[in-house]
Amino acid sequence: MKKVGFYPGSFDPVTFGHLDIISRAAKLFDRLVVGVGIHHGKQALLNDETRISLLKSVIADLKIDESEIEVVTFDDLTVSAARSHGAQAIVRGLRDATDFDYEMQMFGTNHKMADDIDTIFLPASIETRFLAAKFVRQIAKMGGDITPFVPRIVADTIK
């Protein structure tokens, strides 16, 4: 049986922090499904199609065998999406204690709904630990330079 991980997020926009987690999680699973959450009530910086396209493009640049990573969308519960893709685990990145507290609450909730799906926490790398997509969105909206935080294609698209 193949080990399948599910890494959910909005990826609005995809950052070097996301790519760090994707590249490290891909080594832990036979197949990693990257789930782009489509939340109709949220006002995203980038539309769904653009987020998906950029994510596929920058993942291809990671030089990871494409058969190992699949990008999908989901608009239901994370555990439901993980289950529908055959995942045994949800992958979450942690930057700091604030993330840990939030993610532990999510783990508990997800575990009560789907105790057959585990959660794996990966600490952010030292180089990306400070990075949050919400700050990148704010910088972009105010006309700042986001190139230190995102791949060039992402910065060019947002520009």
Can you describe what's shown?
The chain has 159 residues and is of the alpha/beta class. The chain has a single domain (4-153), classed as 3-Layer(aba) Sandwich (Rossmann fold). The protein has helices spanning 16-26, 48-60, 78-84, 97-113, 133-141, 152-158; strands at 4-9, 31-37, 69-74, 89-94, 118-123. Strands 3-2-1-4-5 form a five-stranded parallel beta sheet, with helices on both faces. Strand 2, helix 2 and strand 3 form a beta-alpha-beta unit. The longest helix has 17 residues, at 97-113. It is globular, with a radius of gyration of 15 Å. The termini are far apart. 31% of the residues are buried.
- The CATH first-level class comes to Alpha Beta
How many domains?
1
The succession of helices and strands, N to C, reads EHEHEHEHEHH
Low-confidence regions:
none
The rough form would be described as globular
